[in-house]
Structure formats: C-alpha cells, structure tokens
Amino acid sequence: MHRLLPLLLIAFLATGLAACGDDEDEKTEKFTVDSKVGRTLVLEDNGRRGNSPGDERVFTQNLVDPESGDPVGRLDGTVTVTAQQRSAGRVNEYRVGTIQFTLDGGTLVSSGVYIADPESFVPNQGVKRPIVGGTGKYKGASGEVTQRPIAGGEIGNAFDIRLPD
What we know:
The chain has 165 residues and is mostly beta strands. 10% of the residues lie in helices and 57% in strands.
C-alpha cells in the first residue's frame, strides 16, 4: 500500500497538470475602451478627517470607443484607501478597488490595488488588474485589464481576456 500511494499521487498530478495546460478550450479577445470625464464621484471621509486610510470613493463613468468616441458602455466602481505613503514631500494613496465594465453583451469585473495622488481620480501610472469574472458573453472570463491615464484626466482600459469556448 505504501508503494501504491506515491504512484497514485503521481498519476493524479499528471492528469491535473495536463488538464491545466489545455488552452484549446479557450478563446481570447483583446479590445480597448476609454473612460470619459463627466463621472459621478462620491467620497466618504472615514477615519481621520481629510484624506486618510479608510476613505471610500464610489464612481461611474461613460465608456467610449477610442477611435470614434461613440458610447460603448459604462464603468461603475468603488475604491477604499488602504494606506498612504509620504516621500519627498509628496503623498500617494494605495487604493483597492472593484470595477464593473458594462458592455454590449455582458459585464466584466476587475479588482486590484493601484497608487494615486489623494486629489486625483486616475492612477499615477498604468495598472494591471485581474479580470475576476463576467456575465453574458463574458461569463467565465479571466485575464486582465490594463488601465492607464490618457489626456484630459481620462483612463484607457485595454482588455486581454480569455473566454471558455
């Protein structure tokens, strides 16, 4: 019996690794949408008065096609400040957030941490967030969205997603 257990374990692991490496049952999709200025932003000042850990922001933005400027959906999200870092007379906030992108045919949800100036809505630099799920044609989606600041205080959202076939 003691010799059989290692053999069974090896067979189990080999089967699992083979299944994990099979990407033939997935399709990929890449696209970009921009988040436009004109968002709704609600700030809840928790903790110490003023910008501090515990503060929350709730927001919504219109999503547009970066080429035509035509509306393609909306973005709704929440962030919570988890920490502040002071360096060289400057303050940055660490924020953890969840965003839902409502697009034609379904939704995509991403979550993650980014760094921003306390007075700004946009990340200081590009940030990659994991896609944690979706609905409709995006049901079972995984992958990531890269968000980066663009002109006018807007955000570019580049999706690289995997969908079950």
